[in-house]
Amino acid sequence: MDNERIVIKGGNRLDGSVSVHGAKNAVLPLLAAAILTKDDVAVENCPYISDVDAMVCLLSELGANVAREDRRICVSGGVTRTHARESLCKTMRSSMFMLGALISATGEVELPLPGGCDIGARPLDIHLDGLRKMGAVADIEGNVVRCSAARLRGADIVMRYPSVGATENLMMCASLAEGDTTLVNCAREPEIVALACGLRAMGAKIYGDGTSVMRIEGVQRLHGARMSAGGDRIAAGTVVAAAALCGGDVAIYGVNAGELHTVLQAFRSRYCDIDASDVCVRVRSQGRISARSVITAPYPLFPTDMQPQFVACQCFSDGACTVRETVFENRFGYAEELKRMGASISVGKNVAAVAGDPSAMKGTAVAAQDLRGGAGLCLAAMKAEGESVVYNPRYIDRGYESFEKLFASLGANIRRISD
Ligand code: UD1
Q1: Of 177, 287, 339, 386, whose CB neighbour count within 10 A is largest?
Q2: Using CA positions, which residue lies closest to atom 22 of ligand 1?
């Protein structure tokens, strides 16, 4: 635990408007895809978050030219190395995107197993099965993934689960493979569509992104392009949750409301009106939460990345609910910290039963253990009576840009201390 912390005094309403930053989970694979050509690739709308910093570092270490100008990151020259440094890969899960990008670009890759949030085992079998079907030799030896192929061949791949990362890796591989690839039961997340748009701008031939069957015609080479990530749906969803919980009138710009459909449904109640238009999501809340159960699942169902924020809100509800986690097997670690604030949560295998009681929730010292769990703790602290200290904000910085400034701008009593 480091000494940096976010200090929050609960009880303030949230009012005003915010624009959300570019989507972390879209920007990271777009940056990885940029090494599929030596030409210049510009990725616009990149947020200032530490996962993006780590990806920039990784690309530079692999020999790519990377330059950041405000929110645009330009990558050129391809890579000169195929081995990535362990300490860097350990800092973020998204280093696994380099698997597909590096093998396509160079025919060889040696990657230390990725790190990222400790929310489950996160194996790579779906990635490796797909790569092997495309003709690669792929193995995990000790802590390292090794993969090689002179040139990948198109294949018909049925994924046993719609893994987001595996779909993204296989899209990159199939784009430069010899022949056509069909991905069946692939992921349908908006970030898949964002990557498909980016790859198409580079000359790839991808059809069916956003559905569960994608067809990709391999091309000989990809070329330079300019691409952009949309607004971060999870950052936007986190603001929706905070506004619903704290009460107030908050307008959120820069996000596609359609991508938030199930999240908005989960927070709409007799206490909370949510209007979604093309340009803005507006939340008007009395600051009371209705008890509601949800089940996380791949898109378009309720996102696992909103699960901790949702549970944090349910601690203040007017009844009991269950939240079932079907995507990651270990994603309730933060519940122990919420209990320190007075929450009544019992965690079973993949399910949390929450008995809401607003009067029980009191500010105290808690520690973030992962990105979204950390955000959930901050939301609870913004509502709970008294002062809370949230340690380990570096987890939150992986995916939210200036988390405390965003909520302070809406009226929350929140500040960071870094002495
Ligand atoms: C991505 C997102 C993450 C989000 C998750 C699910 C990025 C950078 N991260 O993570 O924020 O929470 O999607 O929406 O985009 N699995 C296997 N074998 C594999 C691959 C995955 O069993 O080879 C399992 C995982 O352990 C997990 C589930 O599939 O239980 C979903 O994982 P996946 O969709 O791959 O998530 P990520 O791409 O890691």
Answers
A1: 177
A2: 123
Q: How far apart are CA 27 and CA 44, in angstroms?
A: 8
Residue 89: its pLDDT value, please? 74
Rounded to 5 degrees, φ, ψ at 395 are -65, -40
Point out the ligand 1 atom lying closest to the alpha carbon of residue 124. Answer: 23
As a whole number of angstroms, the distance between CA 216 and CA 162 comes to 17
Ligand 1 atom at minimum distance from 125 CA: 23
- Choose one of 327, 396, 398, 400 to mutate for the ligand 1 pocket test, by most ligand atoms within 8 angstroms of C-beta: 327
Low-confidence ranges of the chain (pLDDT < 70): 1-2, 92-93, 114-121
Overall domain count for the chain: 2
User: Domain end: 180, 203, 228, which one?
Assistant: 228
Q: What is the pLDDT of residues 123-180, one digit of tens each?
A: 899 999 999 999 999 998 888 899 999 889 999 999 999 999 999 999 999 999 999 9
Confidence at residue 115, expressed as pLDDT on a 0 to 100 scale: 57
56 half-sphere exposure, CB direction, 13 A CA radius: 19
Q: How far apart are CA 72 and CA 95, in angstroms?
A: 20
Q: For ligand 1, atom 12, which residue shows the shortest CA distance? A: 305
Catalytic choice (46, 89, 117, 272): 117
